[in-house]
Amino acid sequence: MGARPAVRQGGADLSKPQDVNTAELRARYPDVFDRPASSRLATPAMLAAALAIFVFGLVDLDFSPSRFIAGLSQLGWISMMMMPPDPGSSLPLYLQALGETLSIALLGTTLAALLALPVSLLAARNIVPHIVRFPVRRFLDSIRGVDTLIWALVWINVVGLGPFAGVLAIAVSDFGAFGKLFSEAIEGADQKQVEGIRASGGSALHEIRFGLMPQVLPVIAGQVLYFIESNTRSATIIGIVGAGGIGLQLAEQIRVLEWQKVSFLILMILVAVAAIDFISGKLRFAIIGKRAVA
Amino acid sequence: MTIAVSLLPDQQLAVLNAAYRRAVARKRLRLLASLAVFVAALIVASIGAEVNLRTFFTYLGNFVSYFDRILTLDSGQRVWTDFREWFWGLHNWLKLLGETLLISYVGTLIGAVLAFVLNFFAAENTAPSSWLRFTVRRLLEFARTVPGIVFALIFVMAFGLGPVAGVLAIAIHSTGALGKQFSEIVENADMKPVEGIRSTGASWISCMRFAILPQVSASYVSYALLRFEINVREASVMGFVGAGGIGQEFIVAIRKFYYSDVSAILVTIIITVFLIDITTGWVRARLFGREART
């Protein structure tokens, strides 16, 4: 940093900008005064481009104001008809469907975690060489690139309609996510324990079992719990394509315009997700907290 | 060389050993008990989800042969022997894929702007009043918990079939998700600049504009880009319920057993998701790179 600008010295009158020797300032801080046009214009240009694509999108996707307003008033009607939420006589059916959804989430996530654990070892930098890691990672990426609903459709073709297809869909699509997350947890693990076991003559399997796993398992358990929670959300919707659970009921009631039942079902989903949130938060704290004490 | 190991008297050692064994036994018991609870939950869940291992193993062959079928052309050859035949509808699919991208772009942008407006009211340190904060938080929670595709189903009823419903569904879901993330960033922001600006007598809006925004804008863009990535995947299935994009074509191909089309569309979606992931990753890196330099 150079000396202070002249303007501060000798009690100069700040209200008179001509006191400032701009030429000198320019010479001293060229990058403030003469930033290249490219860097000065970059932000406005990016904003303009973003706006242009947005406007193009609105036009291309048929966002006409009249249609929008008509839809909004229709939406207002719908939300009025949703009040008050009322299950009619199908409450037992809905509770059963909700139980099915929770089962799908629990089983799918567990299955995914069990499958992903060995594979994630093959995707971790500190376990296997690059040549193995690269294809495994791309494989996991492609599984993750496909939405759960698409997997549900594929499994429906294999095992037929019903919640079992939902379990398999969640298991496969989470397998991709878990593989990545677990392998990152493994890469983040401390190598000192592993080296200690190697020094005492342990085999590669011993290194993984006694050096890595004790460090990695609590992290993994936390992630699995978090996914059970987020999968409750995914499991609510796979019923829309016929893979069981509360989504099936929801889609049906929307199609037959039973809006009170729809709002009741949405309410049920909200309550279930909040309950799972609460429980898994407690469990996560118990697992990670216990580790921190030990 | 002498090694000093203090040998405790047998009596004392026995007490310590017993205490150690008890502690280990208690820990094991707890682990076993939680495992038992977990397994019981799994069993209940597998009854709830109608899991049938026999069906699974009988039809597992179907899963493999499904991939065999979608990788075979009508002529009986493997798909990669004749790319022209495999991707016969590429022109149409790319157009629909463009629509999908546009849906997620417009939806993410609307969601980001709404989240931007709302997040200052939801953050602990900037909310003008606590009841406003409570309301906005519940609103964001609702928007985030109800799955996007459920909104899409409802909006298709209100706005008619087409991409408008998809855009709005994605916009609402993004508002909920981004609003939460944005407000968490704001809560981590340094509050000293706010005090400085408030001391000059500036209004709340000026405080946000000149004290908070410069600290958080880069992270905002980064999170919005991540959300865009997620939304591309989400938008690819919006067509399942008639809300525009490639999903419409995809579900037709699956339902009507146009096997080679299924794999072709799947491959196009996966490649697009890859490209978007790579591009946004690059933009994010550049964004933070520039931020670090200034």
Automatic annotation (TrEMBL), chain B:
GO cellular component: plasma membrane
Major location (coarse): membrane
Cited InterPro entries: MetI-like, MetI-like_sf, PhnE/PtxC
Gene Ontology molecular functions: ABC-type phosphonate transporter activity
Compartment(s) of residence: Cell membrane
Family: Belongs to the binding-protein-dependent transport system permease family.
Keyword Chloroplast: no
Protein name: Phosphonate ABC transporter, permease protein PhnE
Membrane topology: Multi-pass membrane protein
TM segment ranges: 31-49, 102-121, 142-172, 264-283
Keywords assigned by UniProt, alphabetized: Cell membrane, Membrane, Transmembrane, Transmembrane helix, Transport
PANTHER family per record: ABC TRANSPORT SYSTEM PERMEASE PROTEIN P69, PHOSPHONATES TRANSPORT SYSTEM PERMEASE PROTEIN
Gene3D superfamilies, per the entry: MetI-like
NCBIfam families hit by this protein: PhnE (TIGR01097)
